[in-house]
Design brief:
The structure holds two protein chains of two kinds. Chain A has three helices and five strands. Chain A is of the alpha+beta class. Chain A has a single domain, classed as Heat Shock Protein 90 (2-Layer Sandwich), CATH 3.30.565.10. The mean pLDDT of chain B is about 90. The chains are: A alpha+beta, B alpha/beta. Chains A and B meet through helix 1, helix 2 and helix 3 of A and helix 2 and helix 3 of B.
Chain lengths: ~140, ~120
């Protein structure tokens, strides 16, 4: 049993898209250490990428003066992550459906759909500049 | 000289593209990969593109946008885009976004070559 379990890790990253992969690598290492399977790792990495890109690009507008706060933790069953940007926020309920026929040809706008599809729980907090997500570990024989 | 991000093999008049970077088609590198793919169409005049995803472990929505634009560009010039050898996890990304209805996706390279 590692001391890491359930202890939250906090980090602040610059509003630079190059930071996304660094955070993904940290998250991946945490998931592997806690024996999350390949499919769960893919799901979490994808959701983290989408949420972080949204925070950096749309929330913080790539402003180098703004940062993104990341808080994550893991235990035997669950990975949790809380991402907060310094932007104005948004209402996720007002997002258009990216699977609608008249949206399908658009090159962007699918991030939140993917986050909600791949994570077990997703909640937007505050003015919409915070997202809290969790992933329940999939039992090994069902992956 | 910039790092090679794709390899291209001509099989007849089909340009078969493999991705060099195994790990990721993400926000950080998709712009450069997209540039390489568009160059095939706009500068080198390729009209039949088969993208082989066998080396790709991870893909985000940034790549979806590039693929949509590439599909649109090829359609515009009378060409065709086919994707093949997509992993189970990445295939979920296409089905959840319903882009499997818009983009031609096949099981493997042989099937892909036969679909032009």
């Amino acid at each position: 049993m590692t001391d890491d379990r359930a202890r939250p890790h906090e980090l602040f990253v610059a509003s630079d898209l190059a930071e996304v992969r660094r955070v993904q690598d940290l998250v991946e290492a945490t998931l592997q250490a806690n024996r999350f399977g390949e499919t769960d790792q893919f799901a979490v990495k994808l959701a983290v990428e989408e949420a972080l890109v949204n925070a950096i690009k749309h929330g913080n507008q790539l402003d180098p003066a703004k940062r993104v706060r990341i808080l994550y933790s893991v235990d035997d069953e669950t990975f949790r992550i809380h991402i907060t940007d310094e932007g104005a926020g948004f209402n996720p309920d007002e997002l258009p459906d990216p699977t609608a026929d008249d949206f399908l040809e658009r090159p962007c706008g699918r991030g939140v759909l993917l986050i909600k599809s791949f994570m077990t729980t997703v909640d937007f907090l505050g003015r919409g500049n915070e997202v809290v997500m969790s992933k329940l570990k999939t039992p090994p024989d069902t992956e | 000289m910039s790092r090679q991000r794709i390899t291209v093999e001509d099989v007849g008049d089909v340009a078969v593209v493999q991705f060099v970077d195994k790990k990721i088609l993400d926000e950080q590198n998709i712009q450069m990969i997209g540039d390489d793919l568009f160059r095939l169409v706009d500068e080198l005049g390729r009209r039949k593109l088969l993208l082989n995803f066998a080396n790709v472990d991870f893909m985000s929505s940034a790549a979806l946008g590039k693929l949509i634009r590439l599909h649109q560009r090829l359609t515009q010039v009378g060409g065709k885009l086919v994707l093949c050898a997509i992993s189970k996890d990445i295939m979920q990304v296409f089905t959840l976004t319903k882009l499997d209805k818009m983009l031609k996706i096949v099981k493997d390279e042989q099937t892909g070559l036969g679909s032009f």
